[in-house]
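Request: How about a record?
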Amino acid sequence: MDRDNFINRKTFIVGILGAGFFFATATLLPGLAAAQLDKVRASMAALKAKTAKLGAPRIEGTEAVAGKDVPALYFGTTKMNNNFDLVDEVVKENGGTATLFVKAGDEYVRVATNVKKADGSRAIGTILDPNGPAIAMIRKGDAYYGDATILDKPYVTGYDPIRDASGGVIGIYYVGYLKG
């Protein structure tokens, strides 16, 4: 009888621990997701503030980025194509990743980024996923905040349109954090 009593107690304790783990996971995960989105919003604000200090966004001419001729994105007199200082500064201060995209036809091309490809190089010249969740919102002129897969890795992200003086979308601000 003692053995049966021990097994019943053990089953009961394992059941309580399992239920507690399930409850803790269900309670904490939304909090973690919200905390990551808060970080995304803070990083986005930093990226926008740093570009605003340089001046108004505009397109002028073209420049090769990873062998692709794309419109040259400027903030004031500072050309962003192949210029990593600003995105690296945002990441140094806030963590995560940051990118500036320029609109090139129907695509959005990474012209300044610290998102890395599988080989460890910067993912400049790569395009925003045409089937991802952000592109539909950007095409409507709206921001997207939420999950996205970037170069086969899951991120919590923010994408916000870059608008020229006439209000047209000429690019995208991006920040993101690996999901964790």
Q: What stands out?
A: Residues 141 and 161 are 6 Å apart (CA to CA). Strands lie at 57-65, 68-75, 78-79, 97-104, 107-113, 144-150, 153-163, 169-178. The helical segments are 2-54, 85-94, 133-139. The first strand starts at residue 57 and ends at 65.
